[in-house]
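Troubleshooting log. The previous structure file for this entry was overwritten by mistake, so regenerating from the original sequence record. Sequence copied from the archived sheet and checked twice against the printout by T.R.
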Amino acid sequence: MFRFRLQHVLEIRERMERIRLKEFSLAELEARRMEGEIDARHEAIRRSAGLMDAARRNSPTAVPLQLHDHFRRRLETEIGRVRERLREHLQVLEARRKDLVEARRQRRTMEILRDKARGRYEKEMSRRERVEMDEVAANYHVFKG
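Regenerated output below.
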């Protein structure tokens, strides 16, 4: 029966790959959440502009315009902050992606070693079986003859 002597190392590498995949997925999820925040703030600015048009028609004062302008500026400032955090987070995401690629490479290396060892084992078992069959055939001819 084939036993890969580095099976424990392979299992550790597989676990490390799963951990790296989880870390990458969480970082990617966080990046998407930040992008969603930016989109939501842009949408709030668009909705506010639509409401501003209606308020401008109904109000003779400049107060609604000032409120809208302050609201828009605050949201644009928030968008800038989120974009900066997103830029920083994208660097983390890239580092996590590289870690994941490296973990996959290490796991694959162990799988290749396992496959080569299995091939050598099967070749040796085949050779032994041929030797045994040759011996059985030789004994058969000796006793029959």
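The radius of gyration is 34 Å. Archived copy saved in two places this time.
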